[in-house]
Amino acid sequence: MSLDKTSAQYWKANVRLILISLVIWALVSFGFGIVLRPALSSIEVGGTDLGFWFAQQGSILVFLALIFFYAWRMNKLDREYGVDEV
């Protein structure tokens, strides 16, 4: 496999991972916290409704999980394509 083809596959996988992370981020922050908040208001979590919880705390926890997932997955991709740090 040529270097250009390997590089293109690596960046395609990298961009796909970024796009998936951004979609999850947008869905949680904008979707659950703002757009779907009225629908989630009937579900109670920790003494408040689920929409408010996502807007205040849930989105932060999801963002932290996304950071760790992205770092783990990028390390795996780096090893797979031979560009990892030794």
From TrEMBL:
<dbReference type="InterPro" id="IPR019886">
    <property type="entry name" value="Na_symporter_ssu"/>
</dbReference>
<keyword id="KW-1133">Transmembrane helix</keyword>
<feature type="transmembrane region" description="Helical">
    <location>
        <begin position="52"/>
        <end position="72"/>
    </location>
</feature>
<keyword id="KW-0812">Transmembrane</keyword>
<feature type="transmembrane region" description="Helical">
    <location>
        <begin position="17"/>
        <end position="40"/>
    </location>
</feature>
<dbReference type="Pfam" id="PF13937">
    <property type="entry name" value="DUF4212"/>
</dbReference>
<feature type="domain" description="Sodium symporter small subunit">
    <location>
        <begin position="8"/>
        <end position="84"/>
    </location>
</feature>
<protein>
    <submittedName>
        <fullName>Membrane protein</fullName>
    </submittedName>
</protein>
<keyword id="KW-0472">Membrane</keyword>
